[in-house]
Amino acid sequence: MMRILHLIRHPGEAIGWQVAEAQAARHEVAVLLLQDGVLCRRQTALPVYASALDLEARGLPADRRKPLSDAEIVEVLAAHDRLVTW
Of the four, 2, 7, 17, 47, which is 20 to 30 A from 64 by CA? Predict the structure, then answer.
């Protein structure tokens, strides 16, 4: 089973979410929200992380997203086999 991390940078990125959710049937998939992607409010069963700095810069609470520091983002990136940027 492959570990795939989808990096979503835009709140309206529908295709990235669809691909991530479809891949979750066969792989371990997570999503990392970066930049304006932290504005996304999509409901999903996937693990969702968000850049703590990007959340803070936009005055947003963590809500359902797990906020990550830059160091934690590096760890999450390294822990996945594939990265897909949207």
Answer: 2
Tally of structural domains, the chain: 1
CB burial of residue 41 (10 Å; 0-12, 13-18, 19+) = exposed
Q: For residue 8, give its domain range.
A: 3-85
Q: Are 48 and 33 in contact (CB under 8 A)?
A: yes
Segments in 1-86 forming alpha helices (H): 14-23, 52-57, 70-79
Gap between the terminal Cα atoms of the chain: 22
- The reply to whether the predicted model has a pTM over 0.90 is yes
Specify the CATH number for the domain of residue 47.
3.40.1260.10
CA distances from 53 to 19, 23, 28 (A): 26, 28, 26
